[in-house]
Structures are given as structure tokens and as C-alpha cells.
Amino acid sequence: MATTTLTRPTPGAAPATAQKMRQPRKKLTVGRIAAIVVAAFIAVLWLIPFAWATVTAFKTETDASAAKISWVPPSGFTVEAFAKVFQDGNIPLWTWNSLYTSAAITAITLVISALVAYALSRIDFKGKKVLMTVIIASIIIPPPVLIIPLFYQMLALQMIDTSWAIILPQVIHPAMVFVLKKFFDQIPRELEEAAVMDGASRLRIFMQIILPLSRPILAAVAIFVFIGAWNNFLWPFISTNDGSLLTLPVGLQTIKSAYGVQYAQNMASALLAALPLILVFLFFQRQIIKGVATTGLAGT
Amino acid sequence: MSSSTMSRRTNQPRTTPKPGAKAGPSLRSSSANLSGWGFAAPFLVFFLVFLIWPLISGFYMSLTGKSLTGANESIIGFANYAEAFADAGMWRSLGNTLYFTVISTVPLVLVALVMAALLNIGLPAQWLWRLSYFAPFLLASTVVSLFFTWMYNPQLGLINDFLSKLGLPKVAWLNDPNVAMWAIVIATLWWTVGFNFLLYLAAMQNIPAQHYEAASLDGAGAWRQFFSITLPQLTPTTVMIVLLQILASLKIFDQVYQMTAGGPGGSTRPVVQYIFETGFTGYRLGYSAAISYIFFGLIVLVSIMQFVITRRRSA
């Protein structure tokens, strides 16, 4: 019976209290204890890389490259590696590049996807079926297949080594159009009819009725697209050579070869790169989990 | 694109059409066509320029001898394809990709299922478990590669240290052609299993509680409930996760490129890296595009299988 008391994805404090009320029924059986032990074992395994990277980052380079593995380094903990990375690294610049390209990708994706999804959901125009079929079919196009022609096209458009080269090709998410359309489909048409009576335009209905009602799905799509853009490696790697434009993942790749065997510095930069999204996750955990689950599930 | 045309049409109430008024919003009309395509236009521009056009020009490119240095832009037919099919390097990279896909998909689905099932029992401090299982998914591939290259380090690495404490021999994780791909699978499992775990957890939470209540009245224990209720109810989710995972694994590139650069001796080089290298290191754009299309064909094949399977399931 324990299974039913799990946190339902209802917002607020409700699930917690529900769980507490049912708690007495959940006895500490052997099965439950075993489950907790296994879950904890996996959790520890999953946290070890973070823990080990953190310990290493706070070591001196000498301790980090010592033949004897130490969780508590002989020379004590130090922020030396972080200081070095900040001094001669470009982490803040790369973080900024990642932030604004990802934000731009997310914003453009949301706007153009919501607009076309609205048309597909609500407007009965000629060619709609064809458009819909083409967009759905395009879901199967794997981005790595396009890198060669896309790079060549960017050369022709003279966008290589500009942020546009990173941003523009990443704003097309056919699956997300479909997710949004499915959500719009569920909004009752009666809500719009009043506005139509008042003589509101399509665009106005879209902006003032549909969009406000769609906040949860817009947030979900935004989260999904942002995480993807933030972590994308292949395309930014190919489309930028200009050091001042590098995004975090691509920049880190250059650090790796530049620092060579500076283990503490390598781990310090990796942690600094990981920090922003981990912090965002801690603050918006519920939304991110829901966002990934809904778009991940619906995106197929 | 004229908000005027849009408003002109929508001015008419749909429910009470005045005599002689134009058709309402849901009826097909020239103004509906205009506003429909108007709303679609911004997406379409990006879609055509950055997806459809590269798709077409890539195919055209694959029929030419085009190179980054500009040589031989003339059409040479399917010569690139013929060459690719005879190219041991391409077959090897395709083989590596398929091998990775096969050996990664099983743990990436099973471990995710176990994780979700454990949490679904209703452990205390849900957020903590979810955080530790899912957090790696938020990392960039470069961060993951840095973490694991460090842990796989033959002399200083945590993993070999642990092995030697157990009295086991050290392993040259990323330098042994027989082990390297497995090392990448382990890193990938750690990195991305959280996504499948979340999909499973969400699906499990959607199973109606009454099912379990009825089962427990009938005296079914936790294991019985899991195998008789949870797993069958999850079948569509499982099918979907497996197929999504196969498609994702086929595209592998980042972590291999960053951890082994395709080595040792090309034993981990996936097809995406082969495309990348023939195009940008070898400057052979046409040939590289041809390999891209062969790879695309493979993906289409898998997608068609996915479509057929899910269709049959829902039919």
C-alpha cells in the first residue's frame, strides 16, 4: 500500500500533509528498509563524482597528483585552484556567453513555436495538414546530420564567428511545437468566443487569453530548451572559433587541453561550470522535474 | 503581415454571424489562410532556412566532390556513397555507434526503472533522492568528461584505487580498446539516466491508486503489485523510453570525443565523429555529407520501426 502515498505532483504543501497522515500505515518492514538501503547506495554512487571533483578542486596541485588517493589532503584544503582558474581562465566570460545564447535560443524558440502552435491548434487555414505533417516528420532529423551543410550555409551567410551562428540553428524544436499545440488544443474555445464578440484580433486573443493560460507548458518548454541549449556542445564547437564567443562547454574543452595535468584546476573549472544549472535546479526543482517529465513524455 | 487583416476577420463573432458577415474564425476563409500562415511564418522562416534547406543542400553536397577548399563542386553522382559503402572507417564507426547503442540502452532503461520504483515506494526526503539521481543530467558533457577522465585516470584515479583496495588489478579504462567503450557507457549512464528516471517516475505516479488498493485487499504483496500492476501499466512508457534512448544513443558524440577522442585505435569513434572528421579535418564536405545521409537513413529506419511498434500498440 505504501505505493499510493507517494507525492503526487500537486503543488504546495498538500502532498506532504497527505503523506504524513498516511504515514502510520507505512510500517518499517524489511522490504522498506531494503529499498531505502538500495536507494541510498545508488544515491551515494551518483554523488561520488561530485564529491571527488569537489575534494580535488580544493586540493593543492601537488596533493591532487599524489600517487596516494586522499579524501583529506595532507596539505589541507585550499582555494588556490579556483583562484588560478579565475585569474587566467575565462569562466565568467564563457558563463555569460552560455547564458545569453541559451536565453536567446529559449526566447526565440518560445515565441515562434507558440505562434505556429496556435495556428495549428486554432486557425483553420489552407495547407495546415501539410504543414503539420512536415513539422512532425522533421522531428526525426538528427541535428548531427546537418552539421556539414549548416556550417557551409553559415559561411555563406557570413555568420561564422558571430553569436548568431550559435543561436539561430538551435531555435527549431518541432517536438516542442507539437507539445504546445497539444496543450492549446485543451483550452476551451468558449474562452475565446467572448473575446471574439468584443472584436479582439487573433493576435490579441493569443497574447491575452491563450498565453496566460499556457504558463505551465511555456515554462516546461522553456526549461527543456534552455537546459539543452546550455549544454549543447557539437554545434557551438563547430560554429565558433572566436575565443571571445565560446560557450561554457566549448571553453571547458579548450581548458582541458591547455591545463593538461592540472587536476585541481580542471575540477575547479568543471565545478564552476556546473554550478549555475545546479543552483537553478535547487531553486526550481519542482518546475524543472515537471517540465522535463511533461515535455519529455509529450515530445514523442 | 497586417494585424489589420487579422482583426478584420476576427471582428465577427463566431457564434452569431451577422447576415453577410465573413466567416468566423474556425471556418476556412482567405483571411483565415492569411492569419494562419501569418502565425506560422516566423517559425517557417527558421524552419526552412536552418533545417529544410541544410537538409536539401546537404543531400546535393553529398552528390558532389565539394571540399572546404572549394575544389570540385561538380556533381559526381553517387560516387561518394559508393566510396562510403566500401570505406572500412565508416563501417567501423557505424559499428561502434551500434555497439554503444546496444550496450548502453539496457542499463539506461533498467537502472532508471529501478530508481523510479525505489522512490515510488514513498521514501522520506524525496527531493534529496531526485536531486542525486537527476542532477548529473544538468551537466554539460564537458563537465561529465572532466569528472570521469579524472576518475578513470590509471594511476591517480579513484576507481582504480578502489579496485586495488579490493585486491583487483588496475584497469586502463580509457586506454584499453576492450574496455574504453564500457567506460563511456558507465559515464553516460551516470550522466543521463536521470532523464529516463524522471519519465518513469512521472508515469508511475499516474497509475491510479485504486489499482494498488484493490490488489492489496486481495493480499498482493509489494513485489506482486510491482510485477502485476506497475510494470504492465508502464509498458507504453517503457516502449517509448527504449525507443527514445536508442535514438539518443545513436547520436553519441560529445563524451566520446572529449574522453577518448575516438581512441584507442578508433575503438570508440562513433559515426558522428567520423562525419565531423571527414568534413572538418579531411575537408571533404561532399563525402562527409554522404556519410551523414547514410547515418540519417539508419535513424529513419529506427524511427519507422518506432512508429510501427507504437502504432500497433495503440491500435
Description:
The complex is a heterodimer of chains A (300) and B (315). Chain A is mainly α. Chain A has helices at 14-22, 30-57, 61-64, 80-88, 91-122, 128-137, 143-156, 163-167, 174-186, 190-197, 202-213, 215-231, 234-239, 248-259, 263-283, 285-298. In chain A, helix 12 crosses helix 16 (285-298). Residues 1-25 of chain A have low confidence and may be disordered. With 315 residues, chain B is an all-alpha fold. Helices cover 70% and strands 0% of the residues of chain B. Chain B is built from 13 helices and no strands. Chain B has helices at residues 3-10, 30-62, 79-85, 88-120, 126-134, 141-152, 158-165, 180-205, 209-217, 222-250, 254-259, 271-281, 285-314. In chain B, helix 2 crosses helix 13 (285-314), helix 4 runs antiparallel to helix 10 (222-250) and helix 12 packs antiparallel against helix 13. Chain B is globular. The two termini of chain B are 42 Å apart. The interface between A and B is large, with 115 and 119 residues.
List keywords for this structure.
heterodimer, A: 300 residues, mainly alpha, disordered N terminus, B: 315 residues, 0% strand, globular
Characterize this entry briefly.
Chain A has 300 residues and is mainly alpha-helical. Chain A has helices at 14-22, 30-57, 61-64, 80-88, 91-122, 128-137, 143-156, 163-167, 174-186, 190-197, 202-213, 215-231, 234-239, 248-259, 263-283, 285-298.
Provide the fold topology.
The complex is a heterodimer of chains A (300) and B (315).
Chain A: H1 14-22, H2 30-57, H3 61-64, H4 80-88, H5 91-122, H6 128-137, H7 143-156, H8 163-167, H9 174-186, H10 190-197, H11 202-213, H12 215-231, H13 234-239, H14 248-259, H15 263-283, H16 285-298
Helix pairs in contact in A: 2-15, 4-15, 5-9, 5-12, 5-14, 10-11, 12-16, 14-15
Chain B: H1 3-10, H2 30-62, H3 79-85, H4 88-120, H5 126-134, H6 141-152, H7 158-165, H8 180-205, H9 209-217, H10 222-250, H11 254-259, H12 271-281, H13 285-314
Helix pairs in contact in B: 1-2, 2-13, 3-13, 4-8, 4-10, 4-12, 6-8, 8-10, 10-13, 12-13
